Amino acid sequence: MEIYLIRHGESEGNRTAKLQGCEDFDLTTQGKRQALSLGDFFANVTIDYLYSSDLTRASETAKAVERHQNCEVVHSSEFREINLGPLQGKTREQIYEEFPQVRNKNLLRSGLDGTETDEEITRRCEYLYRLLKSVKNEETAAIVSHGGFLTIFLMYLLAGENWNTLHRPFRINNTGVSKISWNEDRLVIHYINQTHHLKDE
User: Residue 200: pLDDT above 80?
Assistant: First the structure.
């Protein structure tokens, strides 16, 4: 069993330093190049199951991987970025001006009305965990998602429902690849945020 967790390529939201959440943004020209490099990286890896967030920036990245595979992308809203409610589409400066009470908070978990709750995030992590654990020993799966959700999912793998008591130590760059597996029921983290395929940037 091999599992690849992949962040999407650079999006227009990334380029303009906006918190995207569940708002939909296209890939930038650079993001499209990153996606192509990512696809080339996986050309020699046989992926049996390829999943993606249904947001454009992730979907377009996944399609670049799909080009080299014999499986089709399965899209789902379950793999979207954390819903940031009224913070979405704004820069940090705009957010702190409009919502000064969140200045010293983790913006993925601001607690503002309309944002995704810890309980809702936990449910999505559980869903992804069950899905990936169903992959057989001789199979490989990859999922293209988002930086916030993937870093929280890694915390969930380490602490289960208590993920929200941890400091979030992970950072995943655009098209950063993380590889995990399970040896029986023991989690193995092979690497996090590998970006060697972006050697030309």
Answer: no
Q: For CA atoms 28, 18, 174, 114, give the dihedral sign.
A: negative
Whether 81 is catalytic: yes
- For this structure, is 8 an active site residue? yes
Q: With 0.85 as the threshold, say if the pTM is over it.
A: yes
Instruction: Tell me whether residue 130 is annotated as binding.
Output: no
Q: Which CATH class is domain 2-198?
A: alpha beta
Of 2, 60, 66, 81, which one is the catalytic site residue? 81
| Residue 123 annotated as binding site | no
57 annotated to bind ligand: yes
